[in-house]
């Protein structure tokens, strides 16, 4: 139940609906009990079994409430029969029965009506918070987690919380009150018979609770396996060309089938245990009812201590306990199942982000002097990717980082943007540590074009507006022109309003990259980070984009991570990295004349 308490904080904004639900449930439980009580006068008229009482009975205290109720009923029925006749009295009694059942169901509907707003509201807010937390957590968090597992938590796990935990809110008032009102009425009718009934209820409750103990463990397995096969689906769709190109369909199909087989096995175990709750509780209830029939029947037929109509109504009341008892039993299974889902959702919500704004973080709005990378060291896991790395990038300068794969070039981009934090040293902008400013203001100063063209299933306009939400169509078209993307965008069916498909799948690699560059151009930031921005372009596109980039980077501070060395020959400074350290630094012609590592890299590319 500890997880239920944490989830219930999401219900606070909807407490109005909770109170309306509680009030409706109080009346539902009350009229649900009165519906069976109202049968007794009707049965008395039918059986002509009412004692002839001509004077209204006197109240003799709460302990004789049963006798008082019976005498008052006999008095009222006799009065009515004398005044309007037996058939008319019977019609009144039947009307009372219909009215109580109508009111019971009316308030039952109202209760469900109000709880719907609460349940769906909590579902909405919980999903929103999980999504916001998903965005807030650092990039490093998802390098260790499967995307499919996160998707499962935000979809099926949150839905499971609604179906299990929040369904308990419907039962938390209605069913206990129904049982309470029913039991009070049963005591009024016969204390002796009610005590006899309650000898057997704890026994059946103990049997049912034993079955539910293993549900959380099995539910956790089901949800984890669902996250696993969703990850396989995500990887399959993302790498479909590779899978088909290498004829690897059988490998991935086999992995998926193994996962769904495990899901099949875990789900069967879980559902079979869960499905046992209802029939078992009903069977145990019928056993109690049968014993009640035997004992109560002897009170009616042998001892003559209970009137037949009272016993029939009492049996209806006893059966009236079964439905809420079954619902509570089923809900207890749901809570155990929901516990596992809540645990997985709360794991994300309660994960502390490794990269957080400092309490005194400033909002950095302008850029005046430059970027200083001061003696930084960084490792993703055990091995150092960068060691004692120092670099100054003055304002208005273009600094290019080159080197072989694994030399730490892209890591520097990740650290400047603060996707990761350095282990040692510091990165400063205008003398202010990136840890001393808000992440939002830091990234507001930066424009980013990555090696992989990250586009969304949206229109051209929608993809560019990620950089500037209030951009006009004219600004978007200007940015496309600078990136040499307008030449193909204008020929699309709907121009900038054309949907480009999932991850820009309707475009070529070069077209996707030019859109990514146009997005950075539209933002117009003072510092531009280009992580192998031209690597996906053909020779013609590269020339066009390189020309556009050079215009854009003029008088702008740029950190360019380059694979194709021909694209960075005009950089103010070229930094050559090897195994996380600077091995050479200078201008293009200076490094060539040194005939060192840079010269070797240029030679290799020219031969290629």
UniProtKB/TrEMBL annotation:
Q: Name the membrane topology term.
A: Multi-pass membrane protein
* Positions of the ABC transporter domain: 371-604
What residues form the membrane-spanning segments? 20-43, 90-115, 179-208, 283-302
Residues covered by the ABC transmembrane type-1 domain? 68-337
This entry's Gene Ontology molecular function terms read: ABC-type oligopeptide transporter activity; ATP binding; ATP hydrolysis activity
What's a GO cellular component annotated to this UniProt protein?
plasma membrane
Swiss-Prot/TrEMBL keywords: ATP-binding, Membrane, Nucleotide-binding, Transmembrane, Transmembrane helix, Transport
- Keyword DNA damage (UniProt): no
Protein name as it appears in the record: ATP-binding cassette, subfamily B, MsbA
According to its UniProt entry, this protein's organism is Ulvibacter antarcticus
């Amino acid at each position: 139940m500890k997880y239920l308490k944490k989830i219930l904080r999401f219900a606070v904004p909807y407490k109005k609906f909770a109170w309306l639900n509680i009030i409706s449930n109080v009346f539902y439980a009350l009229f649900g009990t009165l519906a069976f009580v109202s049968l007794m006068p009707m049965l008395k008229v039918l059986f002509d079994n009412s004692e002839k009482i001509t004077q209204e009975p006197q109240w003799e205290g709460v302990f004789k409430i049963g006798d008082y109720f019976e005498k008052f009923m006999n008095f009222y029925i006799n009065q009515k029969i004398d005044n309007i006749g037996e058939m008319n009295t019977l019609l009144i009694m039947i009307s009372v029965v219909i009215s109580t059942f109508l009111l019971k169901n009316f308030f039952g509907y109202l209760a469900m009506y109000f709880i719907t707003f609460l349940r769906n509201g909590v579902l909405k807010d919980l999903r929103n918070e999980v999504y916001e937390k998903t965005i807030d957590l650092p990039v490093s968090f998802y390098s260790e987690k499967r995307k499919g597992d996160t998707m499962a938590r935000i979809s099926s796990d949150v839905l499971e919380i609604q179906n299990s935990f929040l369904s308990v809110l419907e039962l938390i008032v209605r069913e206990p009150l129904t049982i309470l009102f029913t039991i009070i009425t049963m005591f009024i009718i016969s204390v002796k018979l009610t005590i006899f009934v309650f000898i057997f209820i704890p026994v059946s409750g103990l049997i049912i609770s034993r079955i539910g103990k293993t549900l959380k463990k099995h539910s956790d397995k089901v949800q984890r396996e669902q996250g696993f096969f969703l990850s396989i689906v995500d990887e399959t769709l993302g790498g479909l060309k590779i899978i088909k190109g290498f004829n690897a369909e059988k490998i991935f199909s086999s992995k998926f089938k193994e996962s769904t087989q495990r899901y099949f096995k875990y789900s069967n175990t879980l559902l079979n245990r869960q499905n046992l709750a209802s029939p078992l509780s009903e069977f145990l209830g019928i056993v109690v009812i049968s014993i009640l029939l035997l004992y109560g029947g002897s009170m009616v037929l042998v001892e003559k201590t209970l009137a037949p109509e009272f016993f029939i109504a009492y049996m209806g009341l006893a059966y009236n306990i079964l439905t809420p008892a079954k619902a509570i039993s089923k809900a207890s299974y749901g809570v155990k199942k929901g516990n596992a889902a809540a645990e997985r959702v709360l794991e994300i919500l309660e994960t502390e982000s490794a990269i957080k704004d400092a309490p005194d973080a400033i909002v950095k709005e302008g850029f005046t002097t430059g970027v200083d990378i001061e003696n930084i060291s960084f490792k993703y896991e055990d091995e150092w990717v960068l060691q004692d790395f120092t670099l100054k990038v003055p304002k208005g300068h273009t600094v290019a980082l080159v080197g072989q794969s694994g030399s730490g070039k892209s890591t520097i981009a990740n650290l400047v943007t603060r996707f990761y934090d350095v282990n040692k040293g510091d990165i400063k902008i205008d003398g202010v540590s990136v840890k001393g400013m808000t992440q939002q203001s830091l990234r507001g100063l930066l424009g980013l074009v990555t090696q992989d063209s990250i586009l969304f299933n949206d229109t051209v306009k929608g993809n560019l507006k990620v950089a500037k939400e209030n951009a006009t169509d004219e600004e978007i078209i200007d940015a496309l022109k600078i990136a040499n993307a307008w030449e193909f965008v204008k020929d699309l069916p709907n121009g900038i309003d054309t949907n480009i498909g999932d991850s820009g799948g309707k475009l070529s690699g070069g077209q996707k990259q030019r859109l990514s560059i146009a997005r950075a151009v539209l933002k117009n930031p003072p510092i531009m980070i280009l992580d192998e921005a031209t690597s996906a372009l053909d020779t013609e596109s590269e020339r066009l984009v390189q020309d556009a980039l050079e215009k854009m980077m003029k008088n702008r501070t740029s950190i360019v991570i380059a694979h194709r060395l021909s694209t960075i020959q005009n950089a103010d400074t070229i930094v050559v990295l090897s195994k996380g350290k600077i091995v050479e630094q200078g201008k293009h012609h200076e490094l060539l004349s040194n005939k060192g590592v840079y010269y070797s890299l240029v030679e290799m590319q020219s031969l290629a």
